[in-house]
Design a protein that fits this description.
single chain
Length: about 190
């Protein structure tokens, strides 16, 4: 069974805070997005945003597999917490989809990602020199929770149903990237706050 009109998640804005924090605003839309507004069903539907400092170009010869390959192989279906395997590169936020809005704001504290061993005297300086940052956003359905709640059986291939993902490169080669979303970089002096 294939979902022919899955919900679509897209990044509408990114705010890079002066300290190593990021806010990402995400729109939820699509033909079946109305299901996310159902008070009962929305308990089983999560919006997921994964931030990555893994630079696929700089790391092309590294031993670590590119996190995007998880999506290309639908690994986010088989392991709903796949991002924990890349703890040194990724941070994830999982939120229940709101039943009263088409919009979600994810907030990340990246200090432990930017300075993992807490060795820097100025983590903000490291943050201002970040070379790469991207995010992946998608919808994930808790089919196991639904099965438990309603006493039904779910086939193994549907135990981690997720939508297609959207990838947005935020910083590449040390420069912010603006594509189809608004960008505010508070790390730059004189920038307005988000």
């Amino acid at each position: 069974m294939t979902c022919t009109a899955p919900p679509v998640v897209s990044v509408s804005y990114v705010c890079l805070k002066e300290e190593p924090n990021v806010e990402i605003g995400v729109n939820l839309k699509g033909t079946l997005a109305y299901l996310m507004k159902d008070a009962v069903l929305s308990q089983y539907i999560n919006a997921v945003c994964v931030l990555s400092i893994y630079d696929p170009v700089a790391s092309a010869n590294a031993y670590t597999v590119n996190p995007e390959s998880v999506f290309e192989l639908n690994g986010h279906w088989a392991n709903t917490e796949w991002y924990k395997l890349w703890d040194g590169y990724l941070r994830a936020e999982v939120m229940k989809t709101p039943s009263d809005s088409d919009y979600i704001v994810f907030k990340f504290d990246l200090e432990s990602l930017i300075d993992p061993d807490n060795s820097s005297d100025d983590v903000n300086a490291l943050w201002s020199e970040a070379k790469y940052l991207c995010c992946f956003v998608y919808i994930q359905v808790d089919t196991v929770g639904l099965a438990t709640q309603y006493g039904i059986e779910i086939a193994d291939e549907y135990k981690g149903v997720a939508s297609d993902y959207s990838k947005v490169v935020i910083i590449s080669e040390g420069k912010t990237q603006e594509d189809s979303y608004a960008m505010n970089d508070e790390r730059v002096s004189g920038a307005q706050s988000c």
